[in-house]
């Protein structure tokens, strides 16, 4: 359950990171509200996860899920580059997340 909470926290991190683009510098009310809600939920879930997981592992996974997810949604939603170097880099981040999961006691 702690890993599911952590992954969910990372997904909400993707939500607020992508949401920043839609706030137009915090000039659009509803995108700003949804971005702020996603940020708060993400941090609350991360806080729950670190109760049972090592903080270094939890934080690294949270950032990794957020970074990889944000790049993927940037490609899909915002037309950002899907160059081989970017895709390989995302793969390495995901490999790191998997490695941390395998190296952390359940």
What's the arrangement of secondary structure elements?
Elements: H1 2-22, H2 29-49, H3 55-78, H4 84-103
Helix pairs in contact: 1-2, 1-3, 3-4
Mean pLDDT: 97
Q: Kindly estimate the percentage of residues that lie in beta strands according to DSSP.
A: under 5%
pLDDT < 50 stretches: none
Distance between the termini: 10 Å
Radius of gyration: 15 Å
Percent of residues in helices: over 70%
Largest sheet: none
Order of helices and strands: HHHH
Strand segment tally: 0
What is the number of helices? Answer: 4
Shape: flat
Q: How many structural domains in the coordinates?
A: 1
Helix/strand-derived class? mainly alpha
List descriptors:
4 helices, mainly alpha, 106 residues, 81% helix
Briefly summarize what is shown.
With 106 residues, the chain is mostly helical. It has helices at residues 2-22, 29-49, 55-78, 84-103.
What can you tell me about this protein's structure?
The protein has 106 residues and is mostly helical. It has one domain. 81% of the residues lie in helices and 0% in strands. The longest helix has 24 residues, at 55-78. The radius of gyration is 15 Å and the shape is flat.
């Amino acid at each position: 359950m702690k890993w599911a909470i952590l992954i969910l926290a990372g997904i909400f991190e993707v939500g607020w990171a992508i949401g920043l683009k839609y706030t137009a510098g915090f000039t659009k009310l509803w995108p700003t509200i949804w971005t702020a809600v996603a940020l708060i939920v993400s941090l609350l879930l991360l806080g729950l996860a670190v109760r049972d997981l090592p903080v270094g592992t939890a934080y690294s996974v949270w950032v990794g899920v957020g970074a990889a997810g944000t790049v993927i949604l940037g490609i899909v939603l915002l037309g950002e580059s899907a160059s081989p170097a970017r895709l390989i880099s995302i793969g390495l981040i995901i490999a790191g997340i998997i490695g941390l999961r395998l190296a952390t006691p359940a």
